[in-house]
Protein: Sphingomyelin phosphodiesterase 4
Amino acid sequence: MAAPAMQQPSYLLANLKMDSTTKPFLQCCQELVKVIDDYPAKELHLIFPWLVESVFGSLDGVIVGWNLGFLQACSNQYNIVMDFLNPSGPMMKLVYKLQAEEYKYEIPVSFLPGPVKVSIQEGVLPDCPLLNNKLHFPLSGLQTLSLALNPFEYYMFMFASSLITPKNYSLGQHVSSLDSAYFVLVDTYLKYFLPTEGSVPPSPFIYKRGSVSPPAPRAPSVPFAGYGIHSASLLKRHISHQPSVTADPAAQEIWRSEALLQVFVEMWLHHYSLEMYQKLQSPQLALLQYRLSMSSMLCQPLTPPGSGTLHTYQEPFTPTEEHVLVVRLLVKHLHAFSCSLKPEQVSSSAHSHTSPLEELKRVVVHRFVQQKLYVFLQHCFGHWPLDASFRVVLETWLSYIQPWRWVRLNKCENLLMYTKLFQGFLNRVVRTDLVNVKNALMVFRVAKVFAQPNLSEMIQKGEQLFLEPEHVLHHRQHRCFLSPGHGGSFLSARQPVVTDRVFRVKSHVYGLEGQDCQYKQMFGMELRGTVLKLIQIIDQARQTAKKMSDQSAEVAANNSFMSWFGMGSPDLNYTFNGGEVDDTGACVKTHEFLERSLDYLCQIFRLNAGQLSQLMATLGSGQDDGNSKQLPDCVQGENGLILTDLGRMQVINGLRRFEIEYQGDPELQPIRSYENAILVRLFFKISSLVNERFGGHMDALCSRPDFLGQLGRHYLASPEAAADGRCRSPETRLTAERYRRPRLSLRMLASYRTLLMLLLLYLFGALFSLGPMSSTLLILTGGFLYGLLSCPVWR
Structure:
């Protein structure tokens, strides 16, 4: 049926649009519920796209919708929204009502994830079951291609897209949380359509046509490459030859679970680079290319395959933290869903008697998630900033690879999820500041997971199977390594059971990395060198964190009273917050996390105490106590010092550092806690007037080579001029020259410490019956004599 855009204008739609801008939110929802109950599907068909867009926002981000990502439980609208969008609520009732009439709604291909969009526009169909038999080929050319989705698919597509569509939020709306309406709805939909107990609830709405109709299965005469002739959907296999009214309810309703998973996986995980895109393409796509060429031939010449944006495309997409949190929720639920498989259904002998839902549980993780999640995590590992926000990506990865928490996960068929991503994590962590407690916690989490009993042995066994000689697969030329994406529907008929574990491992690796992949062993010599380097970095960071923790405790104790007099350390860079909660809920300091991480890494890579001691001794022999007082490794540039790669590593791990200090105009630096703000401003005005009026005389005095010049430079030169031999952070030459001109500075007189010393001197003079003028004269004389003796001319 034609899309809503081709229908006549609807007065109902016009009235609803007007009411949405003039009436309260609660009243609008109540009227929508009444409209859904009272109006026929023919009228509701016209308002459905507008209503979905009003709720979830537009695909271009101009319309924000109900802003579900920022709607919290404390809001007055929260319960109204959750009741309206509940799987058994009015909105889903509308979906089922339209589904029974087999309406279709179009989604432009331009709003699909980048790799899918570009490949379709180039005449290549990706391995994406959601696109199966849904592409609409208009006569206007390839750029106006669209997907024709049924109401349920359209609703879920718009819901999933609202997570990744950039929107123009109002000022102040920039933080989402785990208790937002969107996050709760994702969890609710997953639990409803992928239940861990029982079956998927049947549609509560029955119409004259019988039950709500599933989408039409793909015609067997359309053998899309990458989907296979034997890849009829699980739904089709169970109900295609049965009348819809008498069909098994479980088999009839399972299509919603499959559709929901396809939409979530394709919209949330289908983002990767050009290199990965080329690895994942199906080798035979002639049918779609022929159809696209016939469609575009009427309007414009077909771009030759293999040219244009396909080979220049690079996915610019970077997930948000909220996006990754939702992906982690999906992974956790699918593990729980898969783990709820009945024990009697796990054995292969029972496969022919399993229900559609049980079959889905058995294959859901491997067929739906593995490939796309692996690519998604690789993208995040390579593009995420080197800061503590990476924790959300890390926990998503760990949620997948911890079978002892979620499901009996086959290590051989998930080898790359352990080894390749562990190598990616190593490449990140050696460039990370491990003195930061949040980064140290991430290292601890990964090390603890991989140190689980027997896990390293199983990974090593999987690597050995992959490296088995090719003669083990003497029938390989008659078989192909299948990626999880191949097979049409992810719930397509199972491939023949492969008993050869070597073949299964190779199939897994080649399916994810391509037949020409160069596998790097996790326990090989090349990676072992990186691990030893990481151990050295961890030990360096541990020593630095321990020292900083001890110094911070001392500074905190000393500064509580002495800072008022200016005798404490004014440098807040030495404060060190080194505590974080671990898995057990206890507060652990940074150096303790790093110590445990060292122990776990030694367990994983079988380093004994002697080897570790020798490694640490080798590290310590190249260092001395004076290194911490040296500048990091730098080269001289036009505007000052520039850090080298070695210097960056030294700074990151606390081996060397610049002495961080204020390098602007000394008179304009922020007022300190040990200074009187009124006096600082007063003395600045006085000294500015003096410097402005007598600046030329000061320059002339300080430029003299005799004794008076030396004395003038001692009293009038900026303190920065005397710091030539100190380890300071780089600054431009122009800045240095600007602030080193001779000037009078009275700011020290605004310090509480100076004021206290002057008060004590005046009190001491009063004990000897000296008046204020006499005491002032003695103080000035003493200061002059002290400066005279300190003058470099006497040295």
The two ends are 98 Å apart (CA to CA).
